[in-house]
Amino acid sequence: MSNCINLTCNPIDTVRIGLIGLGNRGLVTLRRYMVVPHSQITALSDLRGENLEQAIAILREHGRMEPATFYGEERWRKICESDRVDIVYICTDWASHAEMATYAMECGKHVALEVPAAMSVDECWQLVRTAEATQRHCVMLENCCYDTFHLGTMGIIGEGLLGDITHLEGAYIHDLRDRYAADERNGGYHKGWMNQASTAHAGNPYPTHGLGPICQILGIHRGDYLETLTSMTAPNKINNTLIKTHLGRTILLQYDVCTPRPYNRMQTVCGTRGFLQKYPTACMMLDGEEATMGEEATQRCEAYIANPLKAIIEEGKRIGVPNVMNYAMDRRLIEALHEGHALDMDVYDAAEWSCITELSQRSALAGGMPVEIPRFV
User: Fold this and answer.
1) Which helix or strand (DSSP H or E) is residue 240 part of?
2) If you write DSSP's letter for every residue of 108-136 in order, what string do you get?
3) Rounded to an integer, what distance in angstroms lies between the CA atom of residue 208 and that of residue 229?
């Protein structure tokens, strides 16, 4: 069995997408793909007929071909089995991600799935072993890895301006109380699944927005690896998880969707020669310089974004996409499949970032006891 590091597959002229899950996230995704070259939506599946109708209306609005449609329980399997699909794009609830992705790869399809990729360590291993056995791409759609401040940070680190990286902080702090209480037509979640999943979880059920960019900065499974964590959760479900890497770097992750705090992903990087932070106020400070704050710091940081991502971001701004992070993520995914080169993120990233979901809970329930993090590669 071969690993999937730098996995390449045969180029695909037009990438045919089977989209599973047409709730709020799925319909937004469908609209995004109306402006992504070399892609075509060829199959759709959802539990609700009205969502399929909305999706078909979007395709018609943009003059696209009629897709195959599958309505009801377990009908998503038909997309995985279809000879009209190259990649299965999964926008369902968290609990179903790993099962769907595994079956899709077993059917010979590439997979892109929303975050987190899995809810348990066993499911993470399942994704890794299936991707290795089938040699199919399995990418978790972590759009924060295409945040322009993060991309600029990667450029600054690449030039050595921060020195040795010692500590990083990331978070998902987002007041979702109103969305949790809303019905699906008003931006809520189908049958309140996300509220239920978050409320029942004792750790950090949604770690990847903060952790994904951090792991890219640290080169996780590309020179360093996540080693241990300890986690604690306050009574109101605010979770703090502290991770140590094999090379001794530390990571602080925070999760809070239940209190009235401003949106914050931290995006904090501490090095021996400099400091960068996006939230709550952008800050850039290098040795021998005064700190730069606010919009000036953002502009300085983003000036270090390298091509080809710089060109994609500028194109997204030029055509007026609503979210340039998502546009860059979509374009990079389809370009890699179209040209037959390795993706920006792989199945090991999906597993490493997602396994924190179970491990943070395990540590928190044990009073913050350290927990070992598996090495997936």
Assistant:
1) strand 239-245
2) T-EEEEPSSS-SSHHHHHHHHHHHHHHT-
3) 15
Report the C-alpha gap between 249 and 356 in whole angstroms: 17
The tens digit of pLDDT for each residue in 212-268 reads 999 999 999 999 999 999 999 999 899 999 999 999 999 999 999 999 999 999 999
Question: Domains, the chain, ranges and CATH?
Answer: 15-142 (3.40.50.720), 144-325+332-372 (3.30.360.10)
- Which 3 state secondary structure label does DSSP give 375? coil
Of the candidates 25, 33, 147, 131, the residue with the CA atom closest to the CA atom of residue 343: 131
223 conformational bin, left if phi > 0, alpha if psi -120 to 50, beta if neither: left
Distance CA 305, CA 327 (A): 16
Cα–Cα nearest to 149, from 326, 270, 282: 282
Angle CA 325–257–374, to nearest 5:
75
pTM over 0.70: yes
- Torsion, Cα 252 360 227 170, to 10 degrees, reads -20
**Six-digit token string for 3:** 């690993």
Please choose, from the candidates 28, 54, 128, 46, the residue with its C-alpha nearest in 3D space to the C-alpha of residue 93. Answer: 46
228 - beta bridge partners? 244, 372
Q: Residue with structure tokens 């598996």? A: 374
Question: Cα separations (Å) of 93 from 109, 185, 298?
Answer: 20, 16, 34
- The string over 154-179, giving b where at least 16 C-beta atoms fall within 10 Å of a residue's C-beta and e elsewhere, is bbbbeeebbeebeebbbbbbbebeeb
> For residue 198, what pLDDT band results from cuts at 50, 70 and 90?
confident
pLDDT band at 183; cut points 50, 70, 90: confident
